[in-house]
Amino acid sequence: MPVARVVVDVMLKPEILDPQGQAVQRALPRLGFEGISDVRQGKRFELEVAGPLDEAALTRIREMAETFLANTVIEDFTVKVEDVDGAKAES
Amino acid sequence: MPVARVVVDVMLKPEILDPQGQAVQRALPRLGFEGISDVRQGKRFELEVAGPLDEAALTRIREMAETFLANTVIEDFTVKVEDVDGAKAES
């Protein structure tokens, strides 16, 4: 059976301070990498969906991302369907 | 000055056990979400690049990802340029 992959990216909202990202950004010049003005660090979830990836399944996954994977008080999320061959489609 | 955004995704290699992803996958049915056969959890870095995003800058970012953002013994990474004018642009 074909397995579809859905990617959920969860990032802190732009107005929320991101100390992890700041730590990375400050470390870069010390390590010899200049020219990066900002770094934000977030989470990426790759979900393998068994069964058809129809609109109902995507709605369910968006609900799951909103209630469980992301804390929407401080985080934004995006749901993308990823072609296992590498191409991507925004949903 | 235009600022370009580069996204570095860091995921555990497929052959490496991912206990965080497994914990999420096992929690989903308890929360009422069926049909997700596998979950992998990784990191997403959004880098704002000051200056031109030419091939030299991208090469530098790939080097940075390889030596600093990812542990290439157990992790794979991808580097993507993201269009800031896209749907996610600030309004």
TrEMBL record, chains A, B:
Keywords: ATP-binding, Cytoplasm, Ligase, Nucleotide-binding, Purine biosynthesis
The protein's role, per its UniProt record: Part of the phosphoribosylformylglycinamidine synthase complex involved in the purines biosynthetic pathway. Catalyzes the ATP-dependent conversion of formylglycinamide ribonucleotide (FGAR) and glutamine to yield formylglycinamidine ribonucleotide (FGAM) and glutamate. The FGAM synthase complex is composed of three subunits. PurQ produces an ammonia molecule by converting glutamine to glutamate. PurL transfers the ammonia molecule to FGAR to form FGAM in an ATP-dependent manner.
GO biological process, alphabetically ordered: 'de novo' IMP biosynthetic process
Organism in which the protein naturally occurs: Streptomyces palmae
GO CC field: cytoplasm
UniProt catalytic activity: N(2)-formyl-N(1)-(5-phospho-beta-D-ribosyl)glycinamide + L-glutamine + ATP + H2O = 2-formamido-N(1)-(5-O-phospho-beta-D-ribosyl)acetamidine + L-glutamate + ADP + phosphate + H(+)
Family the UniProt entry places it in: Belongs to the PurS family.
Enzyme class: ligase
Listed name of the protein: Phosphoribosylformylglycinamidine synthase subunit PurS
Assembly, per entry: Part of the FGAM synthase complex composed of 1 PurL, 1 PurQ and 2 PurS subunits.
Pathway: Purine metabolism; IMP biosynthesis via de novo pathway; 5-amino-1-(5-phospho-D-ribosyl)imidazole from N(2)-formyl-N(1)-(5-phospho-D-ribosyl)glycinamide: step 1/2
Domain of life of the source: Bacteria
